[in-house]
Design a protein that fits this description.
- The chain has 86 residues and is mostly helical.
- 53% of the residues lie in helices and 7% in strands.
- A hairpin with an 8-residue loop joins strand 1 and strand 2.
- It is globular.
Length: 86
């Protein structure tokens, strides 16, 4: 098993069984369904979280990331789940 495979997780979209690397939120078929402005917000908030060391600022930025992350998940849930187990 490669290092990349050992650092994999499931796509966060409920019902999707596709595996993604640990640095990805969801599989590509789901990610491409996320509206572009929302995808930009997820990237922005994730990268800000990675750069923030101050505990108070980190808590605030974590809240932003969690909100944009959940909005991205919610945005794709009503669709057919590309990696759903059959």
């Amino acid at each position: 098993m490669s290092e990349r495979e050992s650092r994999s997780q499931s796509c966060v979209v409920p019902g999707c069984s596709r595996k993604v690397t640990a640095d990805k939120l969801m599989c590509w078929p789901h990610w491409k369904l996320v509206p572009p402005a929302l995808a930009t917000a997820v990237y922005r908030d994730w990268h800000a979280l990675q750069r923030t060391n101050d505990p108070e600022a980190r808590a605030r930025v974590l809240g932003y990331y969690e909100a944009s992350r959940q909005a991205a998940i919610d945005a794709v849930q009503p669709t057919t789940k590309p990696g759903a187990a059959t």
